[in-house]
Design a protein that fits this description.
The chain is mostly helical. Among the domains are: about 20-190, Rossmann fold (3-Layer(aba) Sandwich), CATH 3.40.50.300; about 195-265, no CATH class; about 465-570, Serine Threonine Protein Phosphatase 5, Tetratricopeptide repeat (Alpha Horseshoe), CATH 1.25.40; about 585-655 and about 660-675, no CATH class; about 695-805, no CATH class; about 820-875, Winged helix-like DNA-binding domain superfamily/Winged helix DNA-binding domain (Arc Repressor Mutant, subunit A, Orthogonal Bundle), CATH 1.10.10.10. The strands form 2 sheets. Strands 2-3-4-1-5 form a 5-stranded parallel beta sheet, with helices on both faces. Helix 27 (about 485-505) packs antiparallel against helix 28. The longest helix has 19 residues, at about 615-630. The relative contact order is 0.04.
């Protein structure tokens, strides 16, 4: 590597001072070497110390020493460029001995050297690579004599390679204009995250992915600093250990930066970097305010243009970003030596950002001052705006930093705190803050404060056990929220109306509200509220059983909401719940359990209400978890878990009907498949009370008779669905209907009809993104699926997936029997004849024969003896 205090001319092992070369040599930078190989003319590497310029050149030129002349300043004496070039050329094996004898080393003249060099090299047809490493350390007048001549002399068989820390040391203007120079700067030389991973893998045995990501974030890929950081992590050998502040905690790295970078800065440069270290990104005017003079922006521009210690961008290149480690060094020094000065600078930055219309940055700096008055003032003025833009985490942190007395004295702060905790799904805390606002309410509050309180009350009502006695939409209408001058408030009011419509199962009206809210959020450029609307749309689709559509809306919500915002708001619980439900109905029980566990971890914050949002989420998650255990082959306590979920839901619960439909179909189907007829009847009675006149109830009433081969009765109970007299609450209920009717068609010998019903089921599953009803279908349906393999048309891939889900390993599990089939099976070990079994069970002999035929088929038996043996094997008989 260069830059660690100088390099020597030895191409294979340049001398390094602070950072040893081997760690960097372990990383072959083929991407950069390829760029250098493709360079036909001059090469310029310009970057601060520690960017691996010399190491890269060594990798590139390794094994090519015969035509390389390497020039490097001599640290033992005052460097002189001309003599150094002449010595390097004379030592180059490709130049004949004595070819440059006529030139004296004391005062070589650039034109003479180049003319003679051109004359000697033309005959040998050889190109010399002249490397000048550490250009900036040679005297300026010598650089002005030699570098333009080397860069601009046509026909000279010399490829000039320059490496410098200071961009003013080389003027590549003409060569750049003519396209004759390849330039690599710090942005090119910095390590990518992948390269840091590769280097860590070669040097460290234990390292966590979050640690590597943090190293990349703090160093911005600065190679020497990466090496020193990895060295410290290697010594710790703990993949769970936080990286911490590298500039403050890594002594070697801090000393390296001080020796190679900070000591070379002028007092003015140090002063500006120190005063601006409180800001990540800043503009010239802001830098001037922080430094207290008008030249700070110019100082940063010089550091950007000449030293590459600052990045500049924007109009007129007046937006500056100091390299993270440099900024961290100066900020750390202020924190240690002048904490009051650090607080003062943060106050200046907070006020500047507030005046510039950047409340989030203003609050961030206010928090760094730990000044309750400043924090409270900014929250008073901008808290609601920050919440509307997704700043819930920062607002909650600011609220937590204020003393209770400060909050109690301000109704506005209390309302903002209530809204922040509603957004985070913490209704108990939100209610406490709203009560504090009521206690200190003024007689004639400003209109915007009245609006915020009405919004908080309306949103909080969904979490209450008394939600049905409240009318959140009326609350928002009475407060004129739909006509508020604030777009954030108008959009949130629409989402209150949307939720009210969903609670009443007015899904069309809910989608209209969502569309209007989405248009307004898009026009306002508010991606956070747009993301929340997409989350609401996902909920609407999910409530109707349209899982594919819900998944698409959920994906759009996740795209709009950053990971941090997602976990701080609704996505943390609601999103995980929808993912869990989708995974369950998509026949992915392991994923369903994982997502359900994530959502369940947040339920404790939803309050203790037995009827509001919290109760609905608990019931759904309990059902999903129990059902996923069942689908995973773990039948223990599965039905008990489903019952627990069912008993949480009553007619006065939020979203009671769609949830009752979900629970009833899942639990009733599971109870029948496991042979628990009493449990199935219990579910049916519960469903008759909660979801009368629905397609789900028709299905439940038909499943019982179908299980005991009373197919005519089952078909009659499904008739209202087909005539349109009733409709299911959930679209995927139709899948269970198709599966049931297909099974009945197969068992009555109508295979053509069964094939059509199976195709209908596959099409519906594709449309809805729901395949669980087919995945748990009776074996005769899977057999038909296999029999028709290759003939499923556009649904062939889905059919293959279903067949894969029911692999031979699954086939070895106990086949599912209906309650009546179990009754017949229990009498098989006896010596009763078919006629006697019929008499015992009060059935006709033909019905018994039908049951026996189906039992033999399910157990894979050919005789009564084989059926009994298989029944013992699968656990159907004790």
């Amino acid at each position: 590597m260069d830059d660690q205090g100088g390099t020597g001319p030895d191409l294979l092992s340049p001398q390094l001072i602070a950072v040893s070369r081997p760690p960097l040599d372990l990383l072959a930078r083929s991407r950069l070497v390829s760029k250098l190989d493709a360079a036909a003319d001059a090469v310029l590497l310009c970057a601060p110390a520690g960017y691996g310029k010399t190491v890269l050149l060594s990798q590139w030129l390794g094994g090519q020493g015969h035509n390389v002349a390497w020039v490097s300043p001599d640290r033992a004496a005052r460097p002189s460029l001309g003599p150094a070039i002449l010595r390097a050329l004379r030592n180059c094996p490709a130049i004949p001995d004595g070819a440059l004898r006529r030139l004296t080393e004391s005062s070589p003249n650039a034109p003479d050297v180049l003319d003679l060099l051109a004359e000697q090299l033309t005959t040998s047809a050889c190109t010399i690579r002249l490397v000048i490493d550490g250009v900036e350390r040679f005297p300026a007048h010598e650089r002005e004599q030699w570098l333009p001549a080397l860069l601009n002399q046509a026909g000279l068989p010399v490829q000039l390679v320059l490496a410098t820390r200071d961009s003013t040391a080389v003027d590549p203007g003409r060569a750049r204009l003519n396209g004759r120079i390849l330039e690599l700067r710090s942005s090119d030389l910095a390590f990518s995250l992948d390269e840091i991973n590769a280097l860590a893998a070669k040097t460290i045995t234990l390292l966590g992915t979050p640690q590597l990501g943090e190293v990349f974030r703090q160093t911005a890929g600065w190679p020497a600093c990466v090496v020193l950081a990895l060295r410290t992590l290697r010594e710790a050998a703990d993949p769970e250990r936080p990286v911490g502040d590298l500039a403050a905690n890594n002594r070697e790295l801090a000393e390296y930066l001080d020796h190679e970078i900070l000591r070379n800065l002028t007092p003015a440069e140090r002063s500006v970097l120190s005063s601006t270290s409180v800001c990540r990104v800043l503009v010239a005017a802001q830098a001037n305010d922080l430094a207290g003079h008008r030249d700070a922006g110019n100082v940063l521009a010089v550091l950007a243009d000449q030293r590459d210690l600052v990045e500049s961008a924007g109009s007129g290149r007046k937006v500056f970003l100091v390299r993270p480690l440099i900024r961290a060094c100066f900020r750390g020094e202020l924190a240690r030596r002048e904490p009051e000065e650090l607080a003062r600078l943060n106050r200046i930055a907070a006020r500047w950002h507030e005046q510039a219309g950047e409340p989030e940055a203003a609050l961030r700096h206010a928090l760094d001052t730990a000044d309750p008055r400043l924090i409270g003032d900014i929250l008073e003025r901008h808290g609601a705006t920050l919440l509307g833009a997704g700043g819930v985490t920062r607002v909650r942190r600011a609220i937590a930093s204020l003393p209770d007395s400060h909050l109690a004295a301000s109704p506005r702060l209390c309302v903002v705190a209530a809204l922040a905790h509603v957004e985070s799904r913490q209704p108990t805390t939100a209610a406490r803050y709203l009560a504090a606002a009521h206690r200190n309410w003024v007689d004639d509050p400003p209109s915007d404060l009245r609006e915020l309180r009405a919004l908080a009350e309306a949103r909080l009502s969904w979490f209450s056990g008394e939600w049905e006695n409240q009318d959140p939409k009326t609350t928002t209408d009475d407060a004129a929220l739909p006509y508020s001058p604030l777009s954030d408030v108008r959009i949130e009011a629409r989402m209150v109306s949307l939720t009210a419509a969903v609670a009443e199962r007015q899904y069309g009206a809910a989608e209209n509200e969502a569309s209007e809210a989405l248009i307004e959020a898009t026009e306002a450029g508010n991606s956070y509220l747009a993301g929340k609307v997409y989350l609401k749309l996902a909920g609407i689709a999910s409530m109707q059983g349209q899982l594919r559509r819900a998944g698409e809306f959920l994906r759009q919500a996740e795209e709009k909401l950053s990971a941090q915002v997602w976990t701080a708001g609704a996505g943390r619980s609601v999103g995980a719940l929808m993912h869990a439900s989708a995974a369950l109905l998509g026949a992915e029980p392991a994923m369903a359990l994982k997502c359900a566990a994530t959502a369940t971890a947040e339920l404790g914050q939803l309050g203790s209400s037995s009827k509001g949002v919290g109760a609905a989420m608990r019931a759904t998650l309990e059902l999903v978890t129990a059902c996923a255990h069942l689908d995973s082959g773990d039948r223990r306590h599965s039905l008990d878990g489903m019952r627990q979920a069912r008993l949480r839901i009553g007619q006065d619960h939020l979203f009671a009907q769609p949830m009752a439909a979900f629970i009833a179909v899942i639990e009733h189907t599971a109870a029948l498949s496991l042979g628990h007829a009493e449990r199935a009847r219990e579910v049916l009675e519960w469903a008759e009370e909660l979801i009368p006149g629905t397609g789900e109830l028709c299905l439940l009433r038909a499943q019982g008779p179908a299980g005991i081969s009373r197919f005519d009765a089952a078909a009659e109970r499904l008739r209202p669905l087909h005539t349109g007299m009733v409709a299911p609450l959930l679209d995927w209920t139709w899948l269970h209907v198709h599966v049931l009717e297909c099974s009945m068609a197969i068992r009555t010998g109508r295979r053509t009809l069964a094939g059509k019903l199976l195709d209908d089921a596959l099409g519906k599953a594709e449309d809805l993104g729901v395949i669980r009803p087919l995945a748990i279908a009776p074996q005769e349906i899977i057999d038909l699926l296999v029999e028709r393999a290759g003939a499923h048309g556009p649904h062939e891939e889905l059919a293959k997936r279903l067949m894969a889900l029911r692999s031979p390993a699954d086939a070895r599990r106990a086949p599912l029997l209906t309650p009546r089939e179990r009754e017949v099976l229990t009498l098989l070990p006896s010596h009763l004849s078919q006629e006697q079994i019929a008499a015992e069970l009060h059935l006709s002999v033909n019905t018994v024969k039908t049951h026996l035929r189906i039992i033999y088929s399910k157990l894979g038996a050919g005789t009564r003896h084989d059926a009994v043996a298989a029944a013992y094997k699968f656990g159907h008989l004790p």
